Amino acid sequence: LLSRHFRDNQTHPLKMKLMIVAALLVVASAAPADLEVQPIAIVSSRSEMNADGSYSYAFESEDGTKVESEGSQKQVGEKEEEIGTVSKGSYSFTSEDGVVLTVNWVADENGFQATGDHLPTPPPMPAHVIKLLADLEAAGVL
């Protein structure tokens, strides 16, 4: 009786593992078979890189997606080698509901800033905070 109980307890983890593998096979076979994505053609493209570090590029794809960017080198520190790239550009695409969304952006010494009608914006600053900041600035703290 003891050996039968021991043998049954040894096969229980094996049965569980087989059940898990079988469940994974069922899920995998139920997955959609057509996962192939068709490439989207580029209908126009231009790119320019200059010796002074400035650049520009743009492209448009057949689905209406458009990308533009341009940039140049800028002195960001006191030393000659402390230079950085200042860039600006935009991109637009059509959302799933058919609306063309456009993002304009700038990347400079102030970081990356993006704007677009569809992007969330912070709520207006409360009047008491505006007054506090003005008072701090008048006192020379800011």
Explain the overall architecture.
- A hairpin with a 5-residue loop joins strand 1 and strand 2.
- Helix content is 29%, strand content 36%.
- The N and C termini lie far apart (84 Å).
- Strands 1-2-3-4-5-6 form a six-stranded antiparallel sheet, with no helix packed on it.
- With 142 residues, it is an alpha+beta fold.
- It contains two helices and six strands; from the N terminus they run H-E-E-E-E-E-E-H.
- The radius of gyration is 30 Å and the shape is extended.
- List how many beta strands DSSP finds: 6
Tally of individual helices: 2
Q: Supply Rg.
A: 30 Å
Helical content (DSSP H or I, runs of 4+): 25-40%
The strand line-up of the biggest sheet is 1-2-3-4-5-6
How many strands, which pairing sense, and closed or not: the largest β-sheet?
6 strands, antiparallel
**DSSP strand content:** 35-45%
**Uncertain ranges:** none
Name the overall outline: extended
Order of helices and strands: HEEEEEEH
Q: What's the N-to-C terminus distance? A: 84 Å
Class from secondary-structure proportions: alpha+beta
Give the rounded overall mean pLDDT: 85
